[in-house]
Amino acid sequence: MQYSYYAYQHPFQKPLQTRYGLWSIRQGLIVTLQDDAGNIGQGEIAPLSWFGSETWTQAQDFCHRLPSQLTETQILAIPDRYPACQFGFGTAWSALTAPAISTESSPEICGLLPTGERALSEHSHLWEQGYRTLKWKIGVDIPEKEQSLFQQLIAVLPQQAILRLDANGGLTYDLACQWLQLCDQVSDQIAIEYLEQPLPPEQLAAMLTLSQEFRTSLALDESVATLAQLQRCYQQGWSDIFVIKPAICGYPHRLRQFCQTHNIDAVFSSVFEAEIGRQACLRLAAELSNPKRAIGFGVRHWLSLHG
To answer: What is the CATH architecture of 109-302?
Structure first.
């Protein structure tokens, strides 16, 4: 197969504040494979290094070192330390060798709220766009301030709304207990679907304990960034929710095999990939994500995709 690639960068409409800092530009790479018959398959490499994938520079260097002609064996031999590259090349290869699985299902999509006080004024825009499940990131400001804002947020959200909280692993055990207790207390006011990744990935045992002590569900995210991590957490007894970011999880066919083999409560989610990666992820989500939960792809309003 003939191989080529190019880099892209898309600025955020407004920088996204997370506990890792401000994120202002999404950088990635598009890979193209062409067979002898002229058929073309494309895939996207969208690294997220603070989640455990390779960096954008590492991905670009890897692509640069490859020859202009590739075999199936070479594509399937990409090391596990390049999970975003595995996804990008795996997607392109699948487009050439296997038809896309058609599905009539169209999963509900969760919309991402701004952090901090902006959520109080901008939630209505997402609601008007049809989002009924919303995510709000915590662990980015003083806990007392965030918990006060949380109380204000649930007071202004429609009663039919479903809210997810995402700590990105930024809480202490005691603070996670505070948030979970608060979520339990307000459950009669609004549906809190789950608290996502309250503790760092290395504290899985503590999160297993938390999952048994409160009514509010927990979800793993950073802990299951790659397929190897997903398998490990499953083997260690995690039976609550798995937030899967397919674009950094590795080869799509291996992820599909795992999800089809194991009965897990999976919520597929975005890493702010561009359109080629997004469509590949949405196909996997329609096939493998829990149909009773909204998928985490309500992020397009954050990116300037023509930048």
So the answer is: Alpha-Beta Barrel (3.20)
